[in-house]
Amino acid sequence: MATAQTKVRPKPFLFPQLCKACGRCIDACPKHCIEFATEIDPQSGLTPIVVHEDVCNGCGLCFDACPEPYGLMPRTADFEGVDMVVSDPYTTFGARTHGAPQAEDIPDRPVPLPAVEPMVLKGNYAAAVGAMLAGCRHFFGYPITPSTEGAELMAKVLPEMHGVFVQAVSEVATVNMMYGCGGAGLRCMTFTSSPGFSLMLEGISYMVGAEVPGVFVNVMRGGPGLGNIGPEQADISLMCRGLGHGNTHAIVLAPSTPQEMLDLTMEAFALAFRYRNPVVIAGDGYLGQVSGRVTLPTHLVQPGIPAWAVYGDAMHRGNLITSIYIVEADLELHNEKLNRKFADMEAAEQRSACLECDDAEWLVIATNTPGRMAGGAVQQLRAEGVKAGLFRPITLWPFPVDALVPLLERARGIVVVEAGPGQLEDELRLALSKRGTMPPPIHAVRRHGGVLPSLAEIVERVRGLTEVSHG
Ligand code: SF4
Ligand code: SF4
């Protein structure tokens, strides 16, 4: 009589601290032999699953269902004697794809938009429209003046578009929801204003460390502290130099019109995913509230899914998003990789706009709403015969020093105009210093506390400088 040889199928094995308690294996098990444990795991803070092996037939469906790269695994001899308290599974097991096929990028797809007449939109609404046209369907945030209209529009429209709007309980909740959503490879954003942005910095540091994209629209208001809801530019240092702890940078885009609020927010998503990094839109309270003519682009974006995403399907099962590197040498290597990425951003992503700069002897440097005042001042000065020009940084980090330096050859003076205590001037001076460029004398027009520099103040300052130089 022939005897059939039975192949023993391995039963599941799980380090409980690595279970994210998603419950997918419970749904997948045809024998109903998996359930949640009754106690929280002290290492993960979650309630992991337990497997009743006496009922399990080793079919393996739970391994396939588990999205965690180091979650449910077939029990093999490799696990004999392994310490159950594993702090770093990558080091212990090496790269693990769980047998999943190698994920590939699903690219974005441009979709033509029907031509429509230009519309008149508030800056905040324009940024929200730009986000939706860029494929953003996930918003996390809360109302905070003067950015509230952005969240308001997203709350109204996203549910109609099968999107998700979550009014988060706090800024910390907001940024950590963005961390998770961006880690899944999805386009997410928030609208906030200065004190709210301050509270998000720790989470932004985690996003930079874990290379997670996301877009933060910071409609800056008067500070410090609670301040007021008038326009200021006093978060420039925070956005350019202080994005939480550690080695962090993010591209900071500074729009000056509602049109740029839309265009730059669309671009922010492309940059966030190109570099796997947060991107900040630096608006100001006046720009968020003011209405202006806005022309829609010719295409919207149907977003793809990047290969690196922890998307939750079989294809992306082998991916891991983390900012923890226990071994010092590993963290140093990671920081060197981030530094190369920051250097690439500095080389490729500087943006600026010029008005009458070609033969300018007096360069006015301003951005956001003060940039518009400065544009009017330059036109008035030109009408008086003064060779003035406006250099408007559109990226605050990286500062657009490459375009500025050639203009300094004929400049007799610079006037930095800002609604703040000199943080734009600090960025200018630092960029020139790193470049080894000695600037002409730098002067300032500064207002604070929600007060904008006026056209007349700028004209008077430049006119005064020309009189001194002629006298
Ligand atoms: S191997 Fe099959 S029977 Fe066993 S726990 Fe997993 S899904 Fe259930
Ligand atoms: S599928 Fe994986 S992560 Fe989810 S509950 Fe089961 S073991 Fe835990």
The name of the CATH topology of the largest domain is Rossmann fold
The CATH superfamily of the largest domain is known as: Thiamin diphosphate (ThDP)-binding fold, Pyr/PP domains
Number of domains in the coordinates?
3
- Name the hetero compounds present: iron/sulfur cluster
Rounded Rg? 27 Å
CATH level 1 name of the largest domain: Alpha Beta
Any idea what the CATH architecture of the largest domain is?
A: 3-Layer(aba) Sandwich
Question: What is the mean predicted local confidence, pLDDT?
Answer: 93
Low-confidence segments, ≥5 residues, pLDDT <50?
Answer: none
Terminus-to-terminus distance: 117 Å
Helix content: 25-40%
Largest sheet: 7 strands, mixed
Notable traits:
seven-stranded mixed sheet; 3 domains; binds iron/sulfur cluster; Rossmann fold; alpha/beta; 471 residues; five-stranded mixed sheet; Alpha-Beta Plaits; 35% helix
Q: Mind sketching the topology for me?
A:
Blueprint: E1 12-13, H1 24-28, E2 34-36, E3 49-51, H2 61-65, E4 73-74, H3 89-93, E5 109-112, E6 119-122, H4 123-133, E7 138-141, H5 148-157, E8 164-167, H6 171-183, E9 188-192, H7 194-199, H8 201-210, E10 214-220, H9 236-241, E11 251-253, H10 258-275, E12 278-284, H11 285-289, E13 291-294, E14 299-302, H12 328-348, E15 352-355, E16 362-365, H13 368-383, E17 388-393, E18 395-397, H14 401-404, E19 413-418, H15 423-435, E20 442-446, H16 455-470
Parallel strand pairs: 7-8, 7-9, 9-10, 10-12, 11-12, 16-17, 16-19, 19-20
Antiparallel strand pairs: 1-4, 2-3, 5-14, 6-13, 11-18, 15-17
